[in-house]
Every structure is written in C-alpha cells, then in structure tokens.
Amino acid sequence: MSATQPKVTEREARQVAEAAREQDWRKPSFAKELFLGRFRLDLIHPHPLPADEDVRRGEDFLERLRAFCETELAAGLAARIEREAKIPDETVRGLKQLGALGMKIDTKYGGLGLTQVYYNKALALVGSVSPAIGALLSAHQSIGVPQPLKLFGTQEQRDLFLPRCARTDISAFLLTEPDVGSDPARLATTAVPDGQDTYVLDGVKLWTTNGVVADLLVVMARVPKSDGHKGGITAFVVEAASPGVTVEHRNAFMGLRGLENGVTRLHRVRVPAANRIGPEGAGLKIALTTLNTGRLSLPAMCVGAGKWCLKIAREWSGVREQWGRPVARHEAVGAKISFIAATTFALEAMVDLASQMADEDRNDIRIEAALAKLYGSEMACLMADELVQIRGGRGFETAASLAARGERAVPAEQMLRDLRINRIFEGSTEIMHLLIAREAVDAHLSVAGDLIDPDKALGDKARAGARAAGFYARWLPKLATGAGQVPGTYRAFHPGGHPDLATHLRYVERAARKLARSTFYAMSRWQGRMETKQGFLGRIVDIGAELFAMSAACVRAEHLRATGDHGREAYQLADAFCHQSRLRVEELFGRLWSNTDDLDRKVVEGVLGGVYTWLEEGVLDPSGDGPWIADATPGPSPHENVHRPIR
C-alpha cells in the first residue's frame, strides 16, 4: 500500500461519493419517475427523432467507416489483432484519416460533430470488427480528454486540445489505482501546487485504457488543502510525453487482446495550472458527469455484439442438422435464438432512445444511461454464452483452430471473452446497482433522509418527520388505488393485425407502482440500514431495468410501424421480449422478500473467519504466495518507459 494512502472510514468514503453526485433534477427523467411509480409514457412517446442534417452527416460517415472496416476485415485484421494482441499502427492511422478520433468533437475543432446516436452506431459497427478498436475509440472520446473538456473545459483548453484529439492525438482517462477502484475517497495520487501556475503530480494509475499509446491523459489527483487551495480530487490534462510519465507495464487480459491498457507512473510530473479542468475538488464530479452519457458507448457495442450473435445463430442453426432437421427447429435451441433476437431488439431500443434523449438534452438521462450500461453488459454476456451453446463444440473452439481444419472461422468463444469485461468496465454491475439505487431512492431521502441520519439533531428529525408525513400522505395512496393511464393512451400500441403491446405497457405501469411500494416498505423496515441491503437494492434496480427495456421496445416497435419500416416484425420482437421480460420481473419481485440474503451473510462470515478452510483441501494454488496488491509508492521507476506513440 502506498505511504500516502489516505485513511478514511466507510462513512467518509460515502460522503465523498455523495458530494460528487449531481444533486438536483432540473430536467424530467423517465426512469426516475418509473422508480417513483409514475409511468411517464409522454416522455418517450412519440419516439424522439434526429434532425435531417444529423442523419445525413451520420449516414455519410457510417458508409465510409463500413467501407474501411470491410477492407480491414478482408485483410484479416480481426484474426491479426487476436493473434498479435495489438491493433496495427496502420489501422490506427487509417482511423485517424477517416476522422474516427473526432466523431463526437464539434466540427469547429476539426471533428465530425456526430450525434450520440450515430456515434453509438459507429462504435457498434467498428466493435463488430474488433471490440479492442471499439474500446480504443470509446475510451478516447467518451471518457478521455474530449468529453470532460466539452462539459467543463475553458475555451482556451478546447481551442488547444480538441483539434489535436480530433485528428492526431489519442487520449486516456486515469482514475483507478492499484489499491483504489470504486472508492475514490482513498485516492493516493497527489497534485501539489508549486507556485501559482504549476502542480507537481505523483502517483501510480492502474488499468489505463489507451494509456500505453496515449498522447494526452486526463488524470485524477488529490490536491492537498492549504492556504489559497481548496484541495480535493481534481482533474488535469497531462501531456503523456512529459518528463516523469512512465508506462511501466502493458496489461494482458482474457479478452480485448488488442487493448492498449497499462500501469502508468507519474513521478514529479509538472503540469501547468492552465491544464486543470474545472476548480480544485471538482474532479470526481467531472468524472461522474462525463460518464452520464459516456456510459452509452458500452451498451452500444453490446448492441453490435447482439446483432452479430443473432447473425451467426441464424446462419449456423439453419444449416446444422440433428435428428433429421435443422437445430433451430428443436425447441431447446429455438428458445435461445428467440432470446437473442428479442433481447437485441430491446437493447437497441434502449440505447437509441437514451442516446436520442441525450442529443435533445430535454431530459436528465443519468439513470437511463446507467440502466442501459447495466442491462446491456449483462444481457450481451448471456447472448454470447447462448451462441457458444448453440454452436456446441465449435463454439468452444477458437477461430484459428476452426480455420486450420477448413471450417468457417467463427470467433464465438472470443466474443464471450471480449464481452466479459463490460460487466466491470466503467462501473461494475454491483457498483451500478448501488449507483442507480441511490438515484432511485433520492426522492425518499430528500424528504426523510434526516430521519434515518444518526448524526442529525432531534429538531432536524422532527422537521424531516413532518415533511415526510406530508409527502407520503399524498404519494403512497396513489400507488395503491390511483387511476392509471386511460385506455386511449395505449391505443396506438394495439393496431389491427399486430400483437397487443398495450397490455405490456399497462403491465409496466402496474409494476412501476408495485416497485415504488416495495421501495417504500423496505425503507420503512430497514431505515438507516437500507444501504447495507445490497441484494434487495440490486433486485429493485434490475426490475427497473426490465421495465425501461419493455417501454423502449414497445415505443421502438410503434415507431417502426408508423414509419412503415419492418413494423410487423418489430411488433413480434417487442411482444416476445416483453413476455420474456415479464417472467424475469415476476421472479425478481418474488425474490425481494423471499431470498437467501441472511443465510449468505452467515456463510460469508464463516468463510472469512476460516471455518470452512477444510473445504479447500485437495487442490493446489498455482498463483503462489505473492502480494495481492502491488506496491504503488511513487518514486523513480526502475523500468524502461514503454510508451509507444502511434505515428
């Protein structure tokens, strides 16, 4: 552990995270209303649409990107990246020439100025060729230098750095440390002021995606509080070629083998104060706000993965015969294909809807984007796993091995490996559950939070009690007996000759009320201990994700029907997905109150207490007795700088 590692309590860590959270809701949020038991169909229907010029610009780039990707595929790029664990320099140069580094950067800075919708479509396309390339472009634009500067940078910073990011320079985001993951209160990297115009950075950053080849870095570091300095976690733009910046190690992973991800050491790196993004202490808020839309890039690539899984499943299961007929005609396999098709449709609906809402900027989409990331990463892994099962032994065999014996080189097992990181990237599933749950119960805490805060005085608790009584007196009865949407609201979703999607929307409305009631009952029961009930909170969030997915699927199906674009087929897919989703929702509702959470906690205590070590006998541990966490103490590096710029 670093000698400068801050010592913080659990409560202090929560306070740091809470201070960085965006507190106000200045715009409407469909998902927030859903968790409160209010089904605001009017916020998503009719489906929002992009401007004609945005469509023209986006489609033009997609056409050029597709031609580039097809050429690269024909040249064996995907197999080469998997074999060499590196994206070829000439491929990166080609992406730069296309303008792919500047997809989300405004045209006045030399970028393409694509909307979030078309940026996501581009990532899905390029990610189908190589998820490592998709990760490179996404890390550069979604969380690297361009996005935080767009939201929080000065005009001088934008003028200086954005033209470089649009055409030539790759950027990376450095937050995680060897001993710090989702708990930034313990951040050890420091930025010590040296005079009025310079900071000196020291620390070690882990899992720096693009860090091995980056030209520009966004670095989160702790500024000590002192006279004239507020201090706190602060964001900086750092030139990767600065003296003292060293890439000590290029990490290797089970998937995304072309990922340029490493360990970066900062030793007395001098950074101009002009490169500080926002004020001191705003770094974590900048990171979280950047991720509000930045997270959409990950489920976008999951959409691409779902489409690829569907294509391979269709082609293979139609020609592979067992017992006299194609395997797709066997119910056990057919159910898997139906799941892949319906889920891909719903996931694309979620991502497109949230992305278009982000482009319009009329709604607060922080929960919608988080739900899309959570749901997309989980469901994409399930779809890839089902594809491996459909392919059987060939699904477990590598593409190179298949090709060597004369079969089509389908990288199904690679897809499963590549997708696995998405459940960890940019907030693990467990962290996403807690993050979304915190937003979902925000309305409750705003009126009753002081009641369950042990540090509040009796007077504060009395005032909170009065506020809570008034709020719940108005809110709770509506969840039990209030009028729902009038039938005419759903009329468009039950046109003649199509499945009845209106019944699914009515289900979403009823389920949203039940979800809100369940949250209220849980808060009444556990009060201040609610935050420790992570199993319950995770199920609440998962129900909300399913309801959002059902809503998006129905709205997308109706939009496609209204435009005459595969309307009948879209209704069939939406209907199938909603039926599948409703089964999952009912199971989750049942597990809210009937589960093994208490038993699991007892077993965990036993495991940590060593009472089950006898169960571990009979195996050997090939990992040996090395340290669990590397020493991250800043200091001169004994390693050669392996930073490899791409020219």
Low-confidence stretches: 643-647
Sketch the major β-sheet: 4 strands, mixed
Give the mean pLDDT: 91
The secondary structure category is: alpha+beta
Order of strands in the sheet with the most strands?
1-4-5-8
Task: Lay out the secondary structure.
Layout: H1 10-20, H2 30-35, H3 52-74, H4 77-84, H5 89-98, H6 116-129, H7 131-143, H8 146-152, H9 155-167, E1 171-174, E2 190-193, E3 198-209, E4 216-223, E5 232-239, E6 245-250, E7 261-272, E8 276-277, H10 283-294, H11 297-319, E9 321-322, E10 325-326, H12 331-360, H13 366-391, H14 393-396, H15 399-404, H16 412-420, H17 429-440, H18 442-452, H19 458-481, H20 502-526, H21 534-562, H22 567-593, H23 597-608
Parallel strand pairs: 1-4
Antiparallel strand pairs: 2-3, 3-7, 4-5, 5-8, 6-7, 9-10
Helix pairs in contact: 3-5, 3-6, 6-7, 6-11, 7-10, 8-10, 10-13, 11-12, 11-13, 12-13, 12-21, 12-22, 13-16, 13-17, 13-21, 17-21, 18-19, 20-21, 20-22, 21-22
Structural features, described:
The chain is an alpha+beta fold and 647 residues long. 55% of the residues lie in helices and 9% in strands. The protein contains 23 helices and 10 strands. It has helices spanning 10-20, 30-35, 52-74, 77-84, 89-98, 116-129, 131-143, 146-152, 155-167, 283-294, 297-319, 331-360, 366-391, 393-396, 399-404, 412-420, 429-440, 442-452, 458-481, 502-526, 534-562, 567-593, 597-608, and strands at 171-174, 190-193, 198-209, 216-223, 232-239, 245-250, 261-272, 276-277, 321-322, 325-326. The strands form 3 sheets. It has a 4-stranded mixed sheet with strand order 1-4-5-8. A 4-stranded antiparallel sheet has the order 2-3-7-6, with helices on one face. The chain has a two-stranded antiparallel ribbon with strand order 9-10. A hairpin with a 4-residue loop joins strand 2 (190-193) and strand 3. Helix 18 (442-452) runs antiparallel to helix 19 and helix 20 (502-526) runs antiparallel to helix 21. The longest helix has 30 residues, at 331-360. The protein is globular. It starts with 9 loop residues before the first helix and ends in a 39-residue tail after the last helix. The relative contact order is 0.11. The model is unreliable at 643-647 (pLDDT under 50).
